[in-house]
Amino acid sequence: MIALRYFNLVGAHESGSLGEDPRGVPNNLMPYMMQVAVGRLEKLQVFGGDYPTPDGSGIRDYLHVMDVADAHRVAIEHLDDAPRMRDFNLGTGIGASVLQLVAAFQEASGIAIPYEVAGRQTGDAASLIADPSRIDKEWGWRAARDIQAMCRDAWRFQRLHPNGYS
């Protein structure tokens, strides 16, 4: 058995044909920001501007959804390697702040994203970055896409589907 641990998935298929289309108001940063970009929402709320980080916003390890798909493919190839449960962290091992992700998305889309800094959400940490060294060491898997690719692919999906899937 294998458990893959990951969070902060962003991006879309590079073709723009598959992506995230949440029902109602999104509760994740990237789909919320995309809906602001196409005018479905007025502005982004950045939760916390006083963290002990370079720009005051929280730092997270954002991971492209296609890197996760690739990691699942690799995991299937290794299902029979050991008879015990194994767990692996998936991530880039590199953190980006919320405001860095906003800036990368603005660059990818060419659209200014209006935002306001709001209070912190209860329980949020200043920084959460995955340590993917074990999956790299054991299987040679590494995330291949950076935040520019994540933003470019997410924007391609949103631009092709401004009102979500029909």
SSE topology sketch:
Blueprint: E1 2-5, E2 9-10, H1 29-37, E3 44-47, E4 59-60, E5 63-64, H2 65-77, E6 86-89, E7 96-97, H3 98-109, E8 115-118, E9 127-128, H4 133-139, H5 147-160
Parallel strand pairs: 1-6, 2-5, 3-8, 4-9
Antiparallel strand pairs: 4-7
Describe the structure.
The chain has 166 residues and is α/β, with parallel strands linked by helices. The chain has one domain: UDP-galactose 4-epimerase, domain 1 (Alpha-Beta Complex), CATH 3.90.25. The protein is 33% helix and 16% strand. The protein contains five helices and nine strands. The strands form four sheets. A three-stranded mixed β-sheet has the order 7-4-9. Helix 1 (29-37) crosses helix 5 and helix 3 packs across helix 5 (147-160). The model has no long low-confidence stretch (mean pLDDT 93).
What's a quick, concise take on this entry?
The protein has 166 residues and is of the alpha/beta class. Helix content is 33%, strand content 16%.
CATH architecture: Alpha-Beta Complex
Supply the number of structural domains: 1
**Coarse shape:** globular
The CATH topology: UDP-galactose 4-epimerase, domain 1
Number of strands: 9
- Classified in CATH, the superfamily is UDP-galactose 4-epimerase, domain 1
Radius of gyration equals 17 Å
Summary tags:
166 residues; alpha/beta; UDP-galactose 4-epimerase, domain 1; three-stranded mixed β-sheet; 5 helices; 9 strands; 33% helix; 16% strand
